[in-house]
Every structure is written in C-alpha cells, then in structure tokens.
C-alpha cells in the first residue's frame, strides 16, 4: 500500500512539473512574438525614422515580402535602405556587398533637430558608391511648410546634379508627439504640404519626394489628389505588395517594404531599373 501511494505522489509531481514547464514556454513564446505595434512609443527625434509611426499605428508584419515575389509585372527594381540617427554609424560596405544601391538619410525634424550621424551616413553611402538623398521628418504644428523646407535645405537637404544625389524627401506620417494630424484640418494640411513643396522647389529646382501611407493621407488630407502629378511617391507597406496608393498617384517610385526596428535600416525598392534611378537623381 505504501509503495502504491509513493507511485501516485510521483505521478502527481511529474504532471505538475510538466504543466509548469508548458506555462513557462507559452509565456516565453508570447513575449518573443509581441507585435511591433505593441512596442512602447518612441521618445525623441532620434527614434523617429521613416515609418516608425506607420508601424505603431497601422501595424502589419515587421518584415514584408521581397518585392517581385508576388508581383510578376515588376520587371526591374533597385534595392535601397533608409537610415536615421537611430542607427548610429552605418556599415555601408556591408550594405553595398548585400546589394543595396541607394539610400535615404534622415537630415532634420521640425526646425530644431539635425541627425547627429548625418555626415557619416550621407557621405558614407555616397563614398561607397550609392546614389543617396536626405529626408525631413515633418512637424506641421511647429512651424510653416516654408520654414521647415528652408531648415531642411540649410541642414543637409540640398540637391546637386552630380548623378548620385536624389531629390530631398518629405516624411509626413502620424504625429509621434500628439494628435494624428498635428491639430490641422485637412485643408490646412494640404496648404502646409504645398508650402513645403513649393519652397523646396524654389530653393533646389526639384520637387521633393513625398513619403506617406495611404491611410494617413486619407485621414489627414482627405485623400487629396493634387500632388501625384508633381511629387514622386515613397510609400511604406510591410506586406507582399505595395497595396492601394493615395489619390493622384498612378504608381509609386519607392516602396519601403520592411521595417526592422531598425538596426541596419529599413529596406526599400525603387520601382524601375538602375538607369531610371539615375534619371531621378539627375532630374
């Protein structure tokens, strides 16, 4: 009888230990696979890269499909990357050897922030052989579009016809500091965007690329269609295809198809062959 009781106790202990181990495994799995949208809000300009707020507000996979996997109509593309102060010093030779041929580098935000790693990133990508450009993270509630375009040009956002410099890009996305549309009406947002674009063109001779998501554009501009014939579109979507475009654009120029956090930059695909990327640089 004592032996039987001992076996019963051992079986109960074994079952209890197994249950506890299973619970630990499940907990670890859930923690490791928490979605990027559940991450804590970013805290400052160094943490605001192109797409940082798109991922928080729109969710989606952290790493999307490689362009061309599900789009047989895409005949040619060029691999690119975008970086900001979040990455620090970037290993450009590693990226070049992996096939990256163009880069966008965050230069400014609002009218008070400049990327402390801008020189290493902007000059480093150029020196390794990439075609590169810079971008500005817009804060429309802080100052006018003209003020921010001028600040951008004066702090790394210029353009020259050297065959290796892309037109500057305006990153307009969800407000990391407050209300989605920065407290502006749709009409006021459209006017702000036109103010930035017109000023940038007056300063550089080029129309800026616009980086935005379709969802944000619909919400904050009323899906305004007046920019598509003027400004090239750089669109983020972390899925297997570029998806719906904002009104006015019949095609995208650049697709940001992954967002990794990031540590080595988000990855982008230029919609065309290398000679078309050169044409965009040359204006």
Automatic annotation (TrEMBL):
Pfam families linked: Glyco_hydro_25 (PF01183)
GO cellular component: extracellular region
PROSITE patterns: GLYCOSYL_HYDROL_F25_1, GLYCOSYL_HYDROL_F25_2
Gene3D superfamilies, A to Z: Glycosidases
Domain of life assignment: Bacteria
Signal peptide: 1-36
InterPro entries to which the protein is assigned, alphabetical: GH, Glyco_hydro_25, Glyco_hydro_25_AS, Glyco_hydro_fam25_subgr
Record GO biological process: carbohydrate catabolic process; cell wall macromolecule catabolic process; defense response to bacterium; killing of cells of another organism; peptidoglycan catabolic process
Keywords: Antimicrobial, Bacteriolytic enzyme, Disulfide bond, Glycosidase, Hydrolase, Secreted, Signal
PANTHER family reported in the protein's UniProt record: LYSOZYME (PTHR34135:SF2)
Protein family according to the UniProt entry: Belongs to the glycosyl hydrolase 25 family.
Function: This enzyme has both lysozyme (acetylmuramidase) and diacetylmuramidase activities.
Name of the protein in question: Lysozyme
């Amino acid at each position: 009888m004592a032996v039987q009781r001992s076996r019963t106790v051992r079986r109960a202990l074994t079952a209890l230990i197994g249950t506890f181990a299973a619970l630990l495994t499940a907990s670890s799995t859930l923690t490791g696979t928490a979605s990027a949208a559940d991450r804590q809000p970013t805290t400052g300009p160094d943490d605001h890269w192109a797409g940082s707020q798109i991922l928080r507000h729109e969710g989606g996979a952290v790493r999307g499909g490689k362009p061309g996997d599900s789009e047989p109509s895409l005949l040619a593309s060029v691999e690119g990357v975008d970086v900001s102060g979040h990455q620090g010093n970037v290993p450009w030779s590693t990226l070049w050897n992996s096939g990256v041929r163009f880069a966008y580098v965050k230069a400014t935000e609002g009218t008070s922030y400049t990327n402390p790693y801008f020189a290493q990133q902007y000059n480093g990508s150029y020196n390794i052989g990439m075609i590169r450009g810079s971008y500005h993270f817009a804060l429309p509630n802080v100052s006018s579009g003209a003020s921010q375009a001028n600040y951008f040009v004066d702090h790394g956002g210029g353009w020259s016809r050297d065959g290796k410099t892309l037109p500057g890009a305006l990153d307009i996305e969800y407000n990391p500091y407050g209300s989605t549309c920065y407290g502006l009406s749709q009409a006021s947002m459209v006017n702000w965007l036109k103010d930035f674009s017109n000023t940038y063109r007056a300063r550089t001779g080029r129309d800026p690329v616009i980086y935005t998501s379709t969802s944000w554009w619909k919400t904050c501009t009323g899906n305004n269609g007046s920019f598509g014939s003027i400004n090239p579109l750089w669109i983020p979507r972390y899925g297997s295809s570029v998806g719906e475009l904002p009104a006015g654009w019949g095609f995208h120029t650049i697709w940001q198809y992954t967002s990794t956090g990031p540590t080595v930059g988000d990855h982008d695909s230029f919609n065309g062959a290398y000679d078309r990327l050169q044409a965009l640089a040359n204006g």
